[in-house]
Predict the structure.
Amino acid sequence: MKIGSIELGQRPVMLAPMEDVTDPSFRLICREMGAKMVYTEFVSAEALIRNINSTTRKLQINEAERPVAIQIYGRDVDAMIEAAKMVEDAKPELIDINFGCPVKKVAGKGAGAGMLRDIPKLLHITREVVKAVKLPVTVKTRLGWDCENKIICDLGPMLQDCGISALTVHGRTRSQMYIGEADWTLIGKLKEDPRMTIPIIGNGDITSAQKAADYFGRYGVDGIMVGRGAIGAPWIFREIDQYLTTGEITPLNDTEKMNILRRQIQESIDRIDEYRGILHIRRHLAATPLLKGIPNFKETRIRMLRADTLDELSKILDEIEEKYLNTQI
């Protein structure tokens, strides 16, 4: 699969953009684990052009994580154009436009998936951003606003006509948020449309190597994007890559996986500070499949997620590793 001049190989699997998740450390780990491209947390166009520090920091790229995409969102045409130019100066491989975020504070204000209720404006923003920059521009969106308005098969060709270089589709509507199972049937139908010449990337509910391989075969997509399935489990990219290549998986052992989580904790602290760095990483600790299914684990899990110093958290992880890992999981 190729986006602009960026060659990603056959059946590439990428890390989806996720707010408060895809920080530089996590992106780099996912690249090391086999993700073919990674995406930043989404960047507010309005905040970027106002030079809000917490937003401009999201433009920082580690050379080792390339190829990397920076994703922007907003509802104002001029702000999106200016933000795209600022993003281009940060020198990512491509710029992605978010027309898919379903959360109320974004979609409810007409940005993200909220744009699915104003298709003329969505297309206008896309055309103007494409014209404003030299980098490839891509779009990530959903099937439609709600189940009565699944418009992606009509919208895809229109977005392509705006000049985008690839289209990622999450297999849910905005009204579904993240509830229920992602429906890839319309993603597959869009890929089969003879009018579509740009890469189509599928997204939603990829939680295992076997499912990734199945969906590549079943829906014919050019690439797959993994989001929540990577939280607390960046090794999913290694497993998918192995399975797509050989049909088998040689999984990391529990100690190796725990070491990856410990690295995330330390790098989160180094990037922010001890207290906020641990708060930031709790989402990964809560979601990691490494600790799923441990019997009588509830009390230890609560202590782990309440720990607010590195020393306290490290001692709990040592206890978990000694008592549970490599034996009962």
Observations:
- The longest helix spans residues 254-271.
- The CA atoms of residues 129 and 268 lie 33 Å apart.
- The two ends are 37 Å apart (CA to CA).
